Every structure is written in structure tokens, then in C-alpha cells.
Amino acid sequence: MRSFFGKYKLFFGVLFGISIIIIYLFYNALQPKETLAIYQPSMVNKELVDSTLQKKRKYHTIADFSLINQNGQRITQKDYQGKIYVADFFFTTCPTICPIMTKNMLELQERIKEDDVLLLSHSVTPQIDSVAQLKKYALEKGVDDSKWNLVTGDKKQIYELARKSYLAVKTDGDGGPFDMIHTENFILVDKEKRIRGFYDGTKIDEVEKLMKDLEILKATYAAQNSN
User: Fold this and answer.
1) pLDDT digits 0-9 by tens, 79-94
2) Is residue 36 part of a domain?
């Protein structure tokens, strides 16, 4: 009799355990999946958005570009086509925020080395940051050429990208000889050239948030590919 009741209790114990697992799986399946915003100019601080874009509510993407990297190679939007990437703006002689940003970009480089994710740093002093200067900086800092392009080129193009595409800096400037931009922003860009997040590149907790958002974005694409 005891053996019978023992088996009876065991059976219902196992059944109860299976029921809990099934309920948990259903609960998880019904939970809304985390997603990232698709940033439009109308969602960003007006000080960072050109007046011609402030009311734009959809279809904002990063404009096409043509710049030169640390190896003297021409880098265009095609090199980032179908890729997630993180962009920023810096200059090699910056003594303040840029060294911290570079250190944090190197942290990102290490953590994305197994991922199909790229980095893109634009020089805001292209007249100083020649290809040779960028190459020297890249070697000193440990930049992985397969992951990270440091680019120089036409100043007006770079400044227009910062202001009208990446929405990263104040718009009071024309990219002329006396114009200078300085921003700590890291910008997360998706495979469709859309902005998915802004982060303070001088703060490690913001880098951690970027990494978390990157995982959410990668999971979103993985889910789309499995359907």
C-alpha cells in the first residue's frame, strides 16, 4: 500500500513539475519582446536637429558618404551595407573626451569581435588627421582594421553627416574653416541605416547599455530571419 501511495505521490509530483514548466514557457512566450526605438528627427532634442528636419517623423536614414580610412581605402555606405554599426566623431589630437571615447570604443571592439558588427569613427579635424596620422593613431591604440574604420575626408561632408544624418551635435555651423564640433555621442545604426540609440561614449555604464541594446537588435534580426 505504501509503495502504491509512494508511486502516486511521485506521479503527481512529476506532473506538477511539468505543469509549472509549461506555464513558465507559455508565460515567457506571451511576454512582449524587447525592441529598440527607430529614432526620427522629431524624437530628438531640437538643438541637435537641422531646422529642415525637425518635423520629420519617419524614413530618416544615414546619408550616403565617401571617405578615406586609416589604410588609404575609400569607405562608403556599401562597406556598411547590411551591417549593424556604431559611429562616433573624434580627432586624434583631442586631449579631453576623445581618449576616453577611444578607450571605450576599444572595449566595444573586443566585445564584438565574434559578431558581424562594425565601428566607424569620423575625424572632425580632417585637415590634421591625414591617412598617415590616422594609421599612426590606429596602430598606437590597437585598432582592428577588419572591425573599425577611422575616416577622414571632406570637412563639410563629415560635419553634415554629424548634424543631418547622425543627429549627434548642435546645428549651429556650416562645416567651414572656423567650424568645430565636439560630441561624446556613440550612435547605434541598424542594417537599414536607421538610428537605434544614442549613448555617452565617455561613460562605461552607457557602453554597457549600448551592448545590451546591441543584443536586443541582434535578437530582433535573428527572429525575423527565423520566420
Assistant:
1) 999 999 999 999 999 9
2) no
What does the block give as the cell for 52? 529642415
Q: Taking the model in full, what pTM does it have? A: 0.82
> Structural domain tally of the chain?
2
Residues 6 or more apart whose Cβ sits within 8 Å of residue 131: 68, 69, 70, 71, 72, 152
Does residue 131 belong to any structural domain of this protein?
Answer: yes
Q: Tell me, yes or no, whether 143 and 175 share the same domain.
A: yes
pLDDT of residue 65: 97
CA dist 101 → 30, 57, 196 (Å): 39, 30, 19
59 and 156 share one domain? yes
Closest CA to 94 of 141, 147, 48: 141
Residue 6: exposed, middle, or buried by beta-carbon count in 10 A (0-12, 13-18, 19+)?
A: exposed
Same domain, 122 and 162: yes
CB 79 within 8 A of CB 201: no
Whether residues 104 and 6 fall in one domain = no
19: part of which helix (H) or strand (E)? helix 2-30
Q: What percent of the chain has pLDDT over 70?
A: 81
- Are 61 and 137 found together in one domain? yes
Task: Say yes or no: 18 and 48 in one domain.
Answer: no
Q: Which three cell numbers stand for residue 201?
A: 561614449
- Smallest CA-to-CA distance from 121 within 108, 110, 113 is with 108
Residue 1 reports pLDDT greater than 60: no
pLDDT tens digits, one per residue of 51-66 = 778 778 789 999 999 9
**Domain assignment of residue 19, given as a range:** 1-31
